[in-house]
Structures are given as C-alpha cells and as structure tokens.
Design goal:
Layout (H helix, E strand, L loop, with lengths): L1 E4 L2 H13 L2 E8 L2 E8 L2 H8 L12 E5 L7 H15 L8 E4 L14 H9 L3 E5 H7 L9 E3 L1 H10 L2 E3 L2
Parallel strand pairs: 4-5, 4-8, 5-6, 6-7
Antiparallel strand pairs: 1-3, 2-3
Length: about 170
Amino acid sequence: MEVLIDNVTAKNNIERFLADNYAKAECTEESGTYKLTITKLSSEQIKEIEEPVYQVPLTKGKHVYVFKNERIADDELGNMLTQGFFETIKEINPLPEKIIFYHKGVNLVLEGSPVLENIKHLESLGIEILICGNCVEYYDVKEKIRVGTVSNAYDILTALSKAHHIVSP
C-alpha cells in the first residue's frame, strides 16, 4: 500500500503508528510530498522484535504527567514552582512513563525554556516526551522545539487511557 502525505509531522505519526502495529514504511520525499510504501512485518520479523536479547529492569511507572501551561501557577512563584517540579521529577520512583505537553505547555520544550535542560535529561532517562502537534502548528513554534516528539491526538489519548495515574500540576 502507498500513502501520500504533505507534511513531516503526519509522516512521523504514521510511521510510529505502523511500528506499533507490526508494519514498516519505506519513505521517499519529492517536492514536499512524502510517499510511504507500507508493508506488514513477517511473523519472523515480529518474533525478533518481541524477543529481547536482554531485559533491563523497569524504572518507569505507568504514570503520565501532563502540562497544559508553561507555569504551575501565576507570575514569579509559578516560574519557581515549575523549575522545582522539573528538577524533582528525576528523583521520583518510579519515573513517569511519559510527559505530555499541550496548549501553552508546549513552550516548555522550546529553545530558551528555563526547564529545557531538565526535560532533555528526563528524556535521556527514557521518559517519552510527547508534544501536541496541533498546538505546535497553532503557535507556529516547530522550528524552536529542542526536545521531544511532535505527536497527535491519537498517541496522546492512547497514552492517557493506558496510564494508571495522570499528574497535571
């Protein structure tokens, strides 16, 4: 099957969806149009994916943190609380599985964010950072993103529905 897509964010979302559903896509790009040629993985390829060579003990819980604003509270206190929150997350056990940013919260993953380095560190610990793609487009900030994956409503709602606990400071 072949799919034509006119933007890289949609292409990336489809590729992640396919990977989660045992399919792969070969991609070519011409004049801003992406052509994905989709094939289903063979049972042997699926078996290779499902059988890890070794297992690393999980240190992440089924918690998801959601940030819809760039501060936890108003003004200077809000900035201090937000910085303290992101400095403390790495000490929580278990770590959250994902951190989702939407609405004005997307500003936290942009160049110049006071918590950007903390979020990069959290991502390096294996925490998945998801950013609302519609919000990124609405605020026209795609070029300023410095950490995380621009995502979509499907991925975000799936993450929220699978979470055992959702934290929204």
